[in-house]
Every structure is written in C-alpha cells, then in structure tokens.
Amino acid sequence: MLPNETYAMRRECYRIIPEEYVAVPFVDFLPLIKEVTDAFNEMIKIYQEAEHNKIICGKLLDKVQKSDTAISNLKNRNENDEYFSRENFNKLKSLVHIIGNIRNFVGKIAKSYQDERIENDVKIFNYELDFMMQSMDISLASDTGN
C-alpha cells in the first residue's frame, strides 16, 4: 500500500461526525419525556379549576395532549433508533421549554379575564409547538385555529 493511500484510509477512519448526528443514550431522553407528561398533567388540573378562558385553556390542553402522546411514543422505539441523536435531543429540550411556557400561560389566563394579547399569545404558542413537532419529524395536526 502506498503511503498516501494509508494516510487517506486513516483520515477516513477518524472522520469527525457532526455533533447533531452523534447518538444520545435513550435514557437521557426519558427525563425530558417525563417533563412533557408532567406539564400536561399539571395543565389538566389547571383546566379543571379554571375560572376564566376555559375554552382557550381547553384548546391548548388538547394541543399539548397530542404532543405528549407523540413524545410518549418515543419510549416504544428501539434504543438504537437513529432518532436518538444530539439534534433531536436538543429539539426535545426546546419542546419541553415551549410546553412549560404554555403551562405557565394557561395557569395565568385560567385566573384572569381575557385581554387582547391572549389571542396573539395563543397563535404564537400554536406556531411554536407545531414548528417544533414538525422539525422533530413527529406529526401533529393543527386544529386549534392557528
């Protein structure tokens, strides 16, 4: 074998894999999946005790429920599935943040009368949630009136 061929083979063996494609252990996804489910369960309690804006709270609850179901289904995937990459792990962390913001928003509007900003905030949350679910290749039908 020629020295240049040997060098080329070694270089190929040590090729750096982009960070977004590096596998993340499945167990690292589990706490994030649990956070989504916990936020959804908290939203159920808030919805049941809502004094105001119950329809809006219900629509957001339905939307988060679909996300929770889709995310919970990740537990059924094979641990070696390509899905468990650094990129999807970071996207799931972003989704957890968005759902946490929705939970806090629902908690706030369930206790107060509607103002003009609520409708705009709902549209933003719908967009963020749909965008993140689509970017994670998890389908989520948007039926809450974007």
Explain the overall architecture.
With 146 residues, the protein is an all-alpha fold. The protein has one domain. It is 66% helix and 0% strand. The protein has helices spanning 3-13, 26-48, 54-72, 86-109, 116-135. Helix 2 (26-48) packs antiparallel against helix 3, helix 3 packs antiparallel against helix 4 (86-109) and helix 3 runs parallel beside helix 5 (116-135). It is elongated, with a radius of gyration of 20 Å. InterPro entries: Adaptor_Cbl_N_dom_sf (IPR036537). This is 10260_t:CDS:1.
| H/E element order | HHHHH
**Number of domains as seen in the coordinates:** 1
Contiguous low-pLDDT stretches (5 residues minimum) are 139-146
Could you tell me the number of beta strands? 0
Helix content: 55-70%
Structural class: mainly alpha
Q: How much is the radius of gyration in Å?
A: 20 Å
Number of helices: 5
The fraction of residues in strands falls at under 5%
